[in-house]
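Do me a favour: review this protein, sequence plus structure tokens, and tell me how the chain folds. Record follows.
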Amino acid sequence: MSAEMVPTPRARQQALARLSPFELKDVLIALAGESARQSAGTLLNAGRGNPNWVATEAREAFFLLGRFALLACRATRDDGLLAGLPRREGIAAHLERFLDAHPEEPGAPFLRAVLAFGAGSLGFEADAFVHELADGVVGDHYPSPDRMLPHAERIAHAYLHQELCGGAPPPGRFDLFAVEGGSAAMCYVFDSLQRNGLLAAGDRVAILQPIFTPYLEITALERFRFEVVALNAVPVRSDGTDTWHFPPSELAKLADPSIRMLVCVNPSNPPSQALGGEERAAIMRAVREGNPDLVIVTDDVYATFVPGFRSLLADLPANCIGVYSFSKHFGATGWRLGVVAVHEDNVMDRRIARLPPEWSERLARRYGSLTLAPQRLRFIDRMVADSRDVALNHTAGLSTPQQVQMALFALTHLLDAKHAYRDATIRILRHRRDLLWQGLGLPPPPDDPERAWYYVTLDLEAWARRSWGDAFFAHLCAHHEPVDFVFRLAEQSGIVLLHGGGFGGPPWSVRVSLANLDDADYACIGSHLREAMQAYVDEWRAAAAP
């Protein structure tokens, strides 16, 4: 450690540990930056989940489509600095001629395949489809319908069926609401559940833990003050290796009808572990036998990193509100692209229909400006209205250029029968995992086809007990805070990791993102993790020496 670098005192660590891990991260970045400056090293921030890859094919198609759309606008009016609006009639043939004239342009072959897929597999009328794309990419109209553009919704629906339903989607249709990423989806879902009498302050809410920290923080807000029933994953097997699966005894708690909602991230964040078949079956059993009105919010943003993934949305469609973001898989966090999915036959609508008269009257007043029959307004359409405080419902919806890019991202997978893009991202993450374990000097983790490996949660307690025994871990607890490990890495090595305890995980654990750094950095991080742990071991042995 540099002589100028003073370790953060334990009292200060205790105070800072009360922050969200995403706010604590900023403190660690400052420490790591100073450490890197003093040592002429490099700051390695593995605390953020933003991937360092981007999907190119859909972006190339988007930018080429934009050039075509402006030509279509100028075809109706061209006054130099302004143009008209693209006409629907004949626009598909216009695009075909444009692609004929630009066959070698990046994105041209993909756009041809998009047109063929839309007309063939999805049965789109060509002019209507192309006009939505062209008008949407120009962004010259409010979204209409405000919930989601019709062709974009059909495309996203096909994508979710393929990627979330493990090859066997449930009967019926999901209605989709295009939103500004998974963050907006979370806010809209919690808001509308409460506004429509489906959740009340103080209600019992189950959360599968560890979980993305904001789900824990939202439930504690004064507006909600939910009583959280933590359903905890078992982090280690009998041999001390990680598993992060949920025992039947935990999932059986969902049969209690006093639990009004279940929140899960699947695959989980940060362990990146998908629910297995037995776990999904246990949840289904608890719902069907004891708690049929349970609302399940399932956030499946990491689904595409697990081949054959199956969501609770597929197993319990009537109970689920699905949240999906395109940000991680396609390297598109800056685009803010997400959808909320609600099945056409769902528990939320049924429960709203059973609300007592005072609630029905209250909601009729709230949504009465939208329809003459507000009692028949579906939950997902209430969510759209709530997202704009009802009064601005007519201007609701995700911007049309965003919806076009979302559709093109979805088509990347729908047109890729060999799963080349998906498999490439999976290979990146698994290679970085292996490099991290090499740096740690530990045997590689067991191969688990249900593990996304977007993040790794390292259970320091399990590592300490397995490698050096209970006495060493007791010394660690007596002399250091659980967050000391992330402070030490930042101060001594210029490495930023997140504290796993802030995600509802084991107090002595850290989260490593495998998505946002160069491959070789993960071997370096593993080596520094091993050195930091060895320093604790040396301290313990020195204290025990006679």
Observations:
- The mean pLDDT is 95.
- The first strand starts at residue 44 and ends at 45.
- The chain is about 45% helix and 10% strand.
